[in-house]
Design goal:
The complex is a heterodimer of chains A (305) and B (253). Chain A is mainly α and 305 residues long. Chain A has 13 helices and 2 strands, in the order ααααββααααααααα. The longest helix of chain A is centred in the middle third of the chain and has 27 residues. Helices cover 35% and strands 23% of the residues of chain B. Classes of the chains: A mainly alpha (305), B alpha/beta (253).
Chain lengths: 305, 253
């Protein structure tokens, strides 16, 4: 049981990370900075509960705001670069954040114990949940309520004008500008909101694992974050969730017996998805394809028209 | 209404637009013609703020537009279509207009309802515009699934969605067959009847000669003639520069 709850925790945190990248991809920005925002959220929220003794809720919020603030700052220079150059620039940002925490040594005495980030040793004492009598089930419930909340928000966004504007920017920046869209505002707002989501994910992650260090925030995690929405497609938020469940639940956990070979499978899967489902796993024909697969009569509801 | 004062744009050593003086009066359709590379598209991009001018100024209703970026030109009341259709392909026809939509200046709309209001609020008005464009039954189609003529009409509707004072049409008839050109002709004349001001940049002479009130002719970034369609047709300078070696009245380049 504990194992399955652990998998659910991982899927929930990765879903949030994927959704933050999804929001940016809508505006056409492929960002590997999400892991940097995730790291900021982890450390800030963790330091607040451990070193200052805050309650988890304000600590998570503060982590999210701190991550959002840095995302806002990253948003402006990010406007100047596109495509591959944006990828390189955002990798640079994530590495700066990672190396900052790699070097951060800030130990304080709390209740006779020395706690806090210990540079290369990581930040080891984030035991808020255990110390306050939370069971693992409660942690999973907290993570998933936030996942559901974020998904509902993004789903709602697609039903108001702001959502159409985000997608318009992702489709054609010049046409969007010439239709009166303020590119700077839209892209920076998306970056900030994405940073906030990644920051919450970071705070939740740090508290559910009790321990973070710089290895956690590698570029590999950033690659995972963007591969979820790419694999899941940008049609709606469900695609990202399906991709997270598929990769984390099936490839990483389900095929554990294959050892490290399953990492090769992950790479092959990305290549296969690009070739066979370039629109993502959940595209316009998903419903009718699924019906066909299950031997049901196709409803034809998936037609894009 | 729109005045270009000694407008110039140099790309490195190339003088794409070289001191052009043009005035578009309110309610008229002004044609802007010239051989390929004469600076027409550069002028469109300058008016719409895609890049800043090297010298001169652009005034709309006696207000200098300076070097405002494209989205602020929409606020000032200038909108455009593109030579190569640039729609939001994966959005529906309806959403394409929704993105560009501006409520009439006299209606007070809060920032919140402008961005986060649901689709219902403006549906009636946007559907009216769709009907005008002959796209009433295409509302939920994705833009990429429309036919070529429909895409052209949608782009025109999108330019009208911001309720501009001036619409700049950059070769709207490019690639159209003669039936579609006839339809476009009627559409532009209807827009004129509704009191809109149009700057029409076009190669298709059949269209330019039939819908414009006045025509400005460019060559090598300079204005070489200005007058009514009849005057332009009989101007020897124009015939030499334009009709002499570019008699593509069917719209092909």
């Amino acid at each position: 049981m504990e194992y399955y709850l652990g998998v659910l925790q991982t899927i929930g945190v990765h879903a949030l990370l994927g959704l933050s990248a999804y929001l940016l991809l809508l505006t056409g920005q492929l960002s590997l900075a999400q892991v940097g925002f995730f790291a900021i959220g982890s450390y800030v929220a963790g330091m607040l509960t451990v070193m200052v003794g805050w309650h988890i809720a304000p600590a998570l919020m503060a982590g999210a705001i701190a991550a959002g603030f840095f995302a806002f700052l990253v948003g402006f220079p990010a406007l100047r670069v596109k495509g591959l150059m944006l990828v390189v620039a955002t990798i640079a940002f994530s590495e700066i954040v990672r190396l900052f925490f790699f070097n951060l040594n800030w130990r304080v005495q709390v209740d006779g114990l020395e706690v806090g980030p210990d540079s290369t040793q990581g930040f080891r004492e984030i035991r808020y949940f255990a110390a306050n009598g939370w069971e693992q089930f409660h942690v999973v419930a907290l993570i998933w309520s936030i996942v559901v909340l974020v998904m509902l928000l993004l789903w709602w966004l697609d039903r108001v004008r702001a959502g159409a504007v985000l997608r318009a920017v992702g489709e054609d920046e010049l046409a969007a500008q010439s239709s009166g869209v303020n590119l700077t505002m839209v892209k920076v707002a998306a970056m900030t909101a994405g940073g906030i989501i990644a920051g919450i994910a970071g705070g939740l992650f740090a508290h559910s694992t009790t321990y973070v260090d710089h290895h956690t925030f590698s570029i590999l995690l950033a690659t995972f974050a963007v591969s979820y929405p790419i694999l899941g497609g940008l049609r709606n938020v469900l695609g990202t969730l399906v991709a997270v469940i598929f990769i984390q639940g099936f490839i990483i956990e389900g095929l554990r017996f294959m050892g490290d070979y399953r990492n090769i499978l992950f790479g092959l899967l990305i290549i296969a998805a690009m070739n066979f489902r370039p629109q993502g796993l959940v595209d316009g024909n998903f419903r009718s394809d699924l019906a066909k697969l299950l031997g049901l009569k196709p409803t034809g509801g998936g037609n894009d028209a | 209404m729109l005045r270009l004062n000694n407008l110039a744009k140099h790309f490195g050593g190339v003088r794409a637009v070289d001191g052009v003086q043009i005035e578009v009066n309110k309610g008229e359709v002004l044609g802007l013609i010239g051989p390929n590379g004469s600076g027409k598209s550069t002028i469109v991009n300058l008016i719409c703020g895609v890049f800043p001018q090297t010298a001169g100024s652009i005034e709309l209703d006696n207000i200098d537009l300076g070097i405002k970026p494209p989205h602020q030109r929409i606020d000032s009341g200038v909108s455009r279509t593109f030579q190569n259709i640039r729609l939001f392909d994966d959005l529906t026809v309806w959403q394409n207009l929704w993105v560009a939509w501006r409520d009439a200046p006299e209606t007070e709309v809060s920032w919140l309802s402008n961005w986060f209001g649901s689709s219902g609020d403006r549906r009636v008005e946007i559907e009216k515009l769709l009907d005008f464009s002959g796209l009433g039954d295409r509302s939920n189609y994705k833009a990429k699934n429309l036919s070529f003529g429909e895409q052209r009409r949608l782009e025109l509707a999108r330019a009208m969605a911001s309720k501009p004072k001036l619409i700049v049409l950059d070769e709207p008839a490019a690639g159209m067959n003669s039936e579609e050109v006839r339809d476009l002709k009627i559409r532009i004349l209807t827009m004129k009847d509704l009191g809109m001001t149009v700057l029409l940049v076009e190669h298709v002479m059949e269209l330019v000669m039939n819908v414009t009130d006045r025509i400005v002719v460019l060559n090598f970034g300079k204005k070489i003639a200005e007058g009514t369609p009849a005057e332009i047709q009989n101007n020897p300078l124009v015939q030499k520069a334009y009709f002499g070696f570019a008699t593509n009245s069917d719209g092909s380049d």
